[in-house]
Specification:
Structural class: mainly alpha
Shape: globular
Largest sheet: none
Distance between the termini: 10 Å
Length: about 240
């Protein structure tokens, strides 16, 4: 197993642009009431930096590991979703929803279907159902089923990330923990969006949404480097 210290030394420098871009977003804090291509760029910039983070591991690495390619593709669709949501009040909310739905499908595929972990699946199903029941009275028109489908997709993604985390045996890796935490933060971020948009105003909603979202994407991007770290660990042993 690769130690956390090794991870910080090897991956930390590659994430510096992401942290800087995230700081720029929160420092500028551009008003959402005046959408523009500049505000879209600032919002998407941390995600662009995560593209670079994965590409920095080399095209041969991406070519050899389909999970890393799927996560990169998910980050690309995430950036598109972020851009659409800048103009959500102008009618592009559903477009953003679609982009992130594709992202969750790609992430689910990257995390894989083994191990199954039925218990985790049942827990996530119960939590997803509870979230939908909370939102249902406030939904109308196509959102009644669009939100249901989206919750199912992000719940499935969360299940596959959590299922991969096995703390009780030697299969545990920091990247599986990273994927698990990232998926859970993504669910928190999207639930906050839904409650704030459909139910009632959430205090400091934008800060909560974006902080959990950027952290989630960073952790999921980190989970893509597992294969490379495993190879490094084998060479050292």
């Amino acid at each position: 197993m690769v130690s956390p210290v090794t991870v910080v030394k090897s991956e930390g420098p590659k994430l510096v642009p992401f942290f800087k871009a995230t700081c720029v977003y929160f420092v500028l804090w551009l008003p959402t009431s005046s959408p523009s291509w500049f505000s879209a760029l600032i919002k998407c910039l941390p995600i662009f930096c995560l593209w670079v983070f994965l590409l920095a591991h080399g095209f041969s690495f991406l070519g050899a590991h389909s999970s890393a390619r799927k996560i990169l593709a998910g980050l690309i669709f995430s950036a598109l979703g972020d851009a659409f949501l800048i103009w959500q009040e102008q009618g592009y909310f559903v477009h953003g929803l679609l982009m992130f739905a594709i992202t969750h499908i790609l992430y689910s595929s990257a995390f894989g279907m083994k191990p199954i972990n039925v218990r985790a699946g049942l827990v996530i199903t119960a939590v997803s159902a509870l979230c939908y029941l909370l939102l249902y009275p406030y939904l109308s028109g196509p959102f009644t089923y669009l939100v249901a489908v989206y919750i199912a997709l992000i719940g499935f993604m969360g299940w596959r990330a959590i299922a991969g985390l096995q703390l009780t045996n030697d299969l545990w890796t920091w990247t599986k923990l990273s994927a698990c935490l990232g998926a859970m933060l993504f669910m928190v971020s999207d639930l906050t969006i839904a409650v704030n948009k459909f139910c009632f105003p959430v205090p400091h909603s934008r800060a909560i949404i974006m902080a959990t979202y950027y952290a989630a994407q960073m952790l999921i991007a980190l989970s893509a480097v597992e294969c490379q770290d495993a190879e490094v660990s084998r060479k050292r042993t």
